[in-house]
Amino acid sequence: MRMLGYSLFAVVTACGLVQAQEVEKARKSETKITVEDGKDIKATGCVERNADGGYMLTNVANKDGAMGSYVLATDDDDDLKDHVGHRVEISGKAADKGNGKVTIETTTESHAADGDKSKTKSKAEVKGDLKGLRYLGVKSVRMLASVCP
User: Fold this and answer.
1) What is the separation of C-alpha 20 from the centre of its chain, rounded to a whole number of angstroms?
2) Span 21-80, pLDDT tens digits
3) Which DSSP state fits 6?
4) For residues 13 and 11, what is the distance between their CA atoms, to the nearest angstrom?
5) What are the beta bridge partners of residue 82?
6) What pTM value is reported for the model?
């Protein structure tokens, strides 16, 4: 009898996990980051993929030699997806250099099991001296090396 109880618990737990995965599949989120009014710069570093699906420029050295990173903002991910793991030079507007403006728009679409759909949009905007908000709006990408240190 005890074995039947354990088996039933395992089946119920497995069904719950499958249902949770189905609910997760029914959610789609898209984030768009725009950088305006920052300072035009050229930064050299390594392109890496973010956990959220975006891209980062890592190993960017400043004039003192300190290493940092930028979150890359682009309208076309195709410019960056082919450069993951490469050393590149990126030209664009940096939000943390002078007066910048960063806009982050997120759209989330959910589909319930009963067929209902819902869409949520949010928008956040930050202006001014954005030291610490290291966003780089990508204008152009030039590959320097196919490997990155």
Assistant:
1) 24
2) 444 456 777 778 888 888 888 999 999 998 877 899 999 987 777 788 888 988 777 778
3) H
4) 5
5) none
6) 0.68
